[in-house]
From TrEMBL:
EC number: 2.5.1.3
Name the record gives this protein: Thiamine-phosphate pyrophosphorylase
Matching InterPro entries: Aldolase_TIM, ThiamineP_synth_sf, ThiamineP_synth_TenI
The species this protein was found in: Aureimonas pseudogalii
Gene Ontology MF terms: thiamine-phosphate diphosphorylase activity
Keywords on record: Transferase
Domain of life where this protein originates: Bacteria
Biological process terms in GO annotation: thiamine biosynthetic process
Classification via CDD domains: TMP_TenI
Domain Thiamine phosphate synthase/TenI: 21-191
Length: 219
């Protein structure tokens, strides 16, 4: 990767703040219809197994119909039953990630998070996941992304071919900090789904900022 080639990241959304039922579906449809979304990570967010299964089965087809990949977090059975495109483990365990890759790939996209040092990240990369994520689902309450995640993503993107996702903050005004890491994907949840109104406008704004990178504009 050369420093003079701009990287136009793609948007990943996490469903952490989506409510159950039609209210959540409406917010998700608004987001997916407003601009480029590469992936949606379907987060249990504290739901019991049965409730999460129902939630995922309602969400996954909507994501796929919009042309995005639906990745179910934490529950491999739920990922299979909902016919998701992938599985995400956030425990930060090398053995768990290796087991998931060996059992589910290449049929499913497999990625993980919870690797908080360079050494841990490199060990995780040796399991050959489809991506690593720097951040923690539900941990984007602050306006700016966590500095450690930004630093890890910038380092990773510069030296490793496996794509990475970096978690953004709760305020789109801070999105340039994540863009500057040159990560291939940026995860947003609170910044998009933090309020039930204005979801589509926030997705459009995120993509505008991504496009500005490609066009060489100031954010």
């Amino acid at each position: 990767m050369t420093d003079d080639i701009p990287i136009r990241p793609r948007l990943v959304l996490a469903t952490t703040l989506l409510p159950d039922g039609e209210a959540g579906v409406s917010m998700l449809r608004a987001a997916l219809g407003a601009g480029d979304v590469a992936t949606v990570i379907v987060d249990p967010a504290g739901r019991p197994d049965a409730a999460f299964q129902d939630f995922a089965e309602g969400i996954v087809p909507i994501v796929q119909e919009a042309g995005a990949a639906a990745i179910v977090a934490e529950d491999t059975r739920c990922a299979g039953r909902s016919r998701a495109d992938g599985f995400h483990t956030s425990a930060g365990g090398i053995a768990a990630l290796r087991e998931a890759v060996g059992r589910l790939a290449p049929k499913l996209i497999v990625g993980g998070s919870g690797f908080n040092t360079r050494h841990e990240a490199l060990e995780a990369g040796e399991t050959m996941p489809d991506y690593l994520m720097f951040g923690k689902l539900g941990a984007d309450n602050d306006a700016e992304p966590l500095r450690r995640n930004l630093e890890l993503a910038e380092w990773w993107a510069a030296i490793v071919e496996i794509p990475c996702i970096v978690q953004g903050g709760a305020d789109l005004a801070a999105l340039p900090l994540a863009i500057e890491t040159r990560a291939e994907f940026i995860l947003l949840s609170a910044a998009v789904f933090g309020e039930p109104s204005g979801v589509a406008a926030r997705v459009r704004e995120a993509n505008r900022l991504f496009d500005a990178v490609r066009q060489g504009e100031a954010a």
